[in-house]
């Protein structure tokens, strides 16, 4: 299993489980990203992960609306 769990994943799961709206969740995640003293590669990776997650979320939402 090559799944890597980052602190951001834990944060995402926490917000998700506590039914925080996606917009509120995104702003909280964004605030946490800006607080972290991280290098460019880590920041870019975090953004890619976030975009992939949002894309998946949108696909699922679209599939629900379609059915």
TrEMBL record:
<protein>
    <submittedName>
        <fullName>10306_t:CDS:1</fullName>
    </submittedName>
</protein>
């Amino acid at each position: 299993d090559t799944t890597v769990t980052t602190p951001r994943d834990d944060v995402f799961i926490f917000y998700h489980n506590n039914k925080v709206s996606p917009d509120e969740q995104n702003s909280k995640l964004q605030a946490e990203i800006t607080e972290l003293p991280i290098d460019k590669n880590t920041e870019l990776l975090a953004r890619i992960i976030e975009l992939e997650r949002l894309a998946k979320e949108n696909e699922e939402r679209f599939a629900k609306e379609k059915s």
